Amino acid sequence: MITDQSVINIRTMSLPEPAATPAAPRVRRKDARPGELLEAALHLFVSKGYAATRVQEVAAMAGVSKGTLFRYFPSKQALFEAVVRQYMVSVIQLGDAELDTRTEPASQLLQEALLRWWDLIHSQQVGGLPKLVVSESENFPSIAQFYIREVIQPGFGLIGKILSRGMRSGEFRNLDIPMTAQSLWSGMSYMMLWERVFAPHASEPRVDAHAFIKHHIQTLCHGLMAAPNRGSN
Amino acid sequence: MITDQSVINIRTMSLPEPAATPAAPRVRRKDARPGELLEAALHLFVSKGYAATRVQEVAAMAGVSKGTLFRYFPSKQALFEAVVRQYMVSVIQLGDAELDTRTEPASQLLQEALLRWWDLIHSQQVGGLPKLVVSESENFPSIAQFYIREVIQPGFGLIGKILSRGMRSGEFRNLDIPMTAQSLWSGMSYMMLWERVFAPHASEPRVDAHAFIKHHIQTLCHGLMAAPNRGSN
Amino acid sequence: MITDQSVINIRTMSLPEPAATPAAPRVRRKDARPGELLEAALHLFVSKGYAATRVQEVAAMAGVSKGTLFRYFPSKQALFEAVVRQYMVSVIQLGDAELDTRTEPASQLLQEALLRWWDLIHSQQVGGLPKLVVSESENFPSIAQFYIREVIQPGFGLIGKILSRGMRSGEFRNLDIPMTAQSLWSGMSYMMLWERVFAPHASEPRVDAHAFIKHHIQTLCHGLMAAPNRGSN
Amino acid sequence: MITDQSVINIRTMSLPEPAATPAAPRVRRKDARPGELLEAALHLFVSKGYAATRVQEVAAMAGVSKGTLFRYFPSKQALFEAVVRQYMVSVIQLGDAELDTRTEPASQLLQEALLRWWDLIHSQQVGGLPKLVVSESENFPSIAQFYIREVIQPGFGLIGKILSRGMRSGEFRNLDIPMTAQSLWSGMSYMMLWERVFAPHASEPRVDAHAFIKHHIQTLCHGLMAAPNRGSN
DNA sequence: CATGAATGAGTGTTCATTCAT
DNA sequence: CATGAATGAACACTCATTCAT
What we know:
Four copies of one chain form a homotetramer.
Chain A: H1 4-7, H2 32-48, H3 55-61, H4 66-72, H5 76-87, H6 96-101, H7 106-121, H8 129-136, H9 141-168, H10 177-198, H11 209-222
Helix pairs in contact in A: 2-3, 2-5, 3-4, 7-9, 7-11, 8-9, 9-10, 10-11
Chain A binds a DNA duplex (21 and 21 nucleotides) through residues 18, 21, 24, 29-30, 33, 54-56, 64-68, 70-71, 74-76.
């Protein structure tokens, strides 16, 4: 069975300890502080961008003072990177073993996995992270690398695995797996940006993300062509 | 014939005239100035982002002083918007008449149009604009609206027209046209961001944009499925 | 005899009691605390200056928390003044009675007294205090006054007394005593600053403090002049 | 003849050009700005110390805004170092040739040279520089080195030259020249600190600097001893 | 009593924008 | 017209001091 636990891998990173004094037993009374700060920072970074977000605002939204923020994060940049690391949601993962137990068609597994990921993040703060990574990767190369390593590559890995199974089983044609994975992924990526970037400003086209994702996968599976299609490709 | 002129729509906006002093000779000596400034601004905005670009740098790169820049553009924000308006390249457009003269399969037209657009911008400064729009649309709603109106909607229009023709001719199945257009478009969008955002930081996966675009369109046309596919969709 | 006890006057001030809570057991468990804090503060103030020293560092070096420091000293400024008062080493003092028992020449007494003082402080933390007083007297007038009262005036008193004896006994010419005392003292003052301020940064001239002090006193006693000298002065 | 020009070497350093754009002819209309800033900074650094001086104050005292200050000096530290370099007054220098033309006794030359230097700086802002160097050399080692190189070593050089002449001519005894130079110099150094640091806070002893310097030199020349003095030293 | 998390006034510094020359 | 010196609001960040636990 695919359960949320087995399938979703939310990366939880250890929160930063305020300048750990070497031999302090530290009975952390409140984990709350850094968490609240990260939450506020996520919200503001996502909605205004890195440069336009004031650390004071982050602190205020978290209900603490500027000084407190700097107690937990040594700089604005460190706060930013912590936000990205904290909230980055890796793409749905199916272990090989789990994949083997599934008997559904690969096309159905694809849809299930991608829709599951979408549901996980699409309507939440964290759904703005990809846009943030896109926006700031120029100035923060490390987060681009982090995103590639933690989100993109695992995502491609999962999709590739399903594709591979589908091809082995004869359900799919033999196609270049990395490229096909990107074709599938591009729809997700597009929708995520669309919802965060353009939807608020667009009267049209209205898009139902769920419907689009299903459509994207179905169309990729069955093709546009009307006739029996064994194209040279 | 599809010529660059007929196909490409570079929006040329009236450049801001330096606040016409009453008895100005009206002999526009140098149009060069605003153009050079826009070019420099494009380069810097694209490579460093809006916030990280200093107006001083823009002026210096254009070979003028800060004061001169502000003579032509009343503010950094205005400069930014002018850059976006100036260099936004609308998606390839085929007029109805031209479309009618083409007898190639719709799938081939799609590939031709999208590859053409890609070639036009992918390796140039202007190719960085979509990323910039994505990054800054939160703080500059007007450019998001502008981008939707000038790039996305025309692009969808063209793709939709080709799809529509393919469906009418029986080449394609009857599918939801807007959604299918987005499936096609999402590949372009994905590749553009990939090249600008992640490629510089990724050792892997290596992607050949041309090959990917072809693959994306071909796969969408013929589908992943091995068997004759009349899916319920 | 000149003993360390009789000669050296280390000012011990009553250390600040932590704001006596009403029913305090009165059993002073640890006198250690303020002493350790003062020691740490001396070290840091002397090596980094007042402004560059963080109370946190002082507390850490003393092995206590910031809060504890403020329990003993109401402010950084108070800590600073306490350090100066605590460690200020008054110049060697010879009581009148003791002076009377000494039969050595005044020039020898001078050398003995000044070298003794030098040896007492020159290689220790406390030797940095005069520089600190010089540096901070502008912002802490009280310590300047304290230094004048506790160090300079007693020092001049002692030197003046020896000079006076030398003049009475016919060993010295009749000279203005305060000025002559300053001539003698200036060599000490100069050497102290030199060692603390410039020696660490100077490759040259190398100076042997002991030799210089002896030389300074000898030269002042015997003069530069080659011929029998009864100058008009 | 010893004229102010030949004898006094006020180090004038080139004022910093604001971020020199390579090929700018720069018709410096007003040298005034950096000069005024340096003057204000000298005053404030000298009277309050480096840390206690606010760049805003410096700017205000110079009649400009904070931004203007940073146009001329990239940082507070750079301003500070510029002040030291600008106003450092090297000790009086007598060229060898000039020294040879003088027939006065060496003792008189010494007094003339040192008094001249004293008069040059004692009652001016710049007279506070030595104290500043003493105070801040811990945190700004470069200024200590600069001071040693530009003030102390030349000063010792001059004094040493006069001493050497006096010894060659038989006027002075043969003594260690560097040490003797320091004995002479220490009086100057002492007086300078005294006037800047303690005099404002001392009711007593009152000191007449001129008289003290004369006394210091005379006493060093003729010695304290009453009897014909050919001490072993 | 000791602690160190929390505070926020205060600092150096940046940079878009203005305007006298 | 072009210039770049001048401006000052705004920012990230520091650190002495307080106080709940």
